[in-house]
Request: fold
Amino acid sequence: MQEVQPDSDGMNLATVWEAVAAAVPSAPALIHTTLTRTWAEFEDRAARLAAYLIGAGLGPGSNVALYLYNGPEYLESTFGAFKLRAATLNVNYRYLEDELKYLFENSQAEAVVFAAEFSDRIDAVRDSLPLLTTFVCVGATEEHHVPEWASDYEIVIEQTAPMPAISRSGDDLWLLYTGGTTGNPKGVMWPHRSLLGTAKTTFAVVDCPIPETAEQVA
Reply:
């Protein structure tokens, strides 16, 4: 994926979320079942994952696959990838080996954050994917262990110092794959600028004031 140069207009999701975290650090950012994470925690955990990915060789223009159920780790991984100016791509949790291989090859994914119960599926395809070199495992249990070829998500968060904020571009991408109901999924490249512009338009359509400050965004 072609690298774009940073700019200063703030039209980047990671930059917006960092501003919110700085403005209202103790406000809840993520609520999932009995777990609540504040904006400060959300930002810190994402920054630690971002630093780990940088250490693994990823950077602007890299793609990070998310083979996860909905949960805090999905959003933290998205934020973390956006921090280093990488794109994330969605992976349907129902996908099996052939579908995974196609998606990882097509997207040129360099890293995957995956649920522990999907380890066998990843293991079956990883040797055929030379670009996919970084594996982070979420939600290990007694039944589903972290494989030896992967890193434990929580240990990564615990042991990695957070990356500092950087300048980014509104042209950084979010890679969204279509459903693939009539053929192979297609990757749709959404610039952050377009996503935030769509959000502004939505506010106008429903006659809501457009947020002007980070506190209002939160």
Observations:
- The first strand starts at residue 28 and ends at 32.
